[in-house]
Amino acid sequence: MDGAPITIAPSILSADFARLGEQVVEAQLAGADSLHVDVMDGRYVPPITFGPIAVAAIRPLVAIPIDVHLMVVEPERFLKDFVEAGANIVTVHLEATTHLHRTLDAIRELGAKAGVALNPTTPLSAIEEALPFLDLVNLLTVDPGYGGQRFIPACLRKIARLRAMIDESGFSILLEVDGGVNAETARAVVAAGASVLVAGSAIFNAKASVQENLQRLRAAAVR
Fold it and tell me: What's the structural domain count of the chain?
């Protein structure tokens, strides 16, 4: 079982875009370990969200890592732009790039950590040969494209199987879980083997402050 501490990555997809700069600073001050930036192109997934300019705008405001999740077709076209804008981690979808190894290698050559994202029904076997080239696996527990979706309970078994796969590989790979993570689901997600929790609407909402929401999630995220 992975013994690394649980880290929390607030997803700015759920932030108030009118005060995005303030919200990322709030997240850092509240104890966020990194920021998660969901980039969507309107092709791989229906919505269109952020580009490198948005990453460059928030980079000077925070010292914590920025984890860019590329939900885009042919992500290799944009790697350099996002890393130069300030991304520390770049994650691509297995189905969106033709040559995964080449893409992961390009991310690392640019000086960032390389991740791959798996949709809820993407088999784990699809990345078995890619493990030596990965720093992170982002296991989606909702279908990609929209924030605020409900966690898919069947994914808990998949998290546990991925945890075992990573542990057996011997490689140092973060297991990130993304989708429907909140104070009600976090404990089960962590128990299944997650080491990084991505949370959007659970952090950025009007029910409480960013600090209160993050503290509530961290309290629930115990092994």
Answer: 1
The model's pTM is: 0.95
pLDDT digits (tens, 9 = 90+) for 76-85: 999 999 999 9
93 assigned to some structural domain: yes
Residue 2's pLDDT is what?
53
Domain around 21:
7-220
Domain assignment present for residue 214? The answer is: yes
Beta strands in 51-210 (DSSP E): 66-71, 89-93, 113-118, 136-140, 174-178, 196-199
The 10 Å CB-count burial string (b at 16+, else e) for 108-133 is: eeeebbbbbbbbeebeeeebeebbeb
188-206 tens-digit pLDDT:
999 999 999 999 999 999 8
- Residues labelled catalytic: 38, 178
